[in-house]
Amino acid sequence: MTCFAIARDDLTSPDVLDLLRLHLDEMHSWSPACKVHALPPEKLRAPDVTFYALRDGDRLAAVGALKVLGEGRGELKSMRAAPDYRGRGAGRALLEHLIAEARTRGLIWLGLETGRTVPFLPALRLYESHGFAESTGFGDYVPDEFSLCMELHL
Q1: Domain 5-153 bears CATH identifier 3.40.630.30
Q2: What predicted TM-score, i.e. pTM, was given to this entire model?
Q3: DSSP percent split of the chain into helix, strand, coil, nearest 5
Q4: Is residue 113 annotated as a catalytic residue, yes or no?
Q5: 85 an active-site residue?
């Protein structure tokens, strides 16, 4: 099993920016533009968002963020494993870290929005395996044939 290191990240390193660019490009190729809720780096630097990079030595394996919504609620944003690390536990390790971080911060609820189509099935299975269940929309998210909201009560 790979030993990953997870740390807060300032979104300035080229490998992180490249992975986020790939993430946004794929989201736009898989979903209508109005259903792409992935954030660009400048919005992931907001004060209410904590961004993390997961590394395997000096190689970037995954990224993801925790956004605090208020009233004990949080949202997972920009979860993405690097192509070479898909299916190798990087996403799982980062998701477990983000859930633990949410609990440490005293959050009682985590939500996320993801796609509902075939390219998103691995992510859906990962979230379900950690107790996330389909939910009604939250914030500005409206579930439909492309978009799925999920929640986890902590």
Answers
A1: yes
A2: 0.92
A3: 35, 30, 30
A4: yes
A5: no
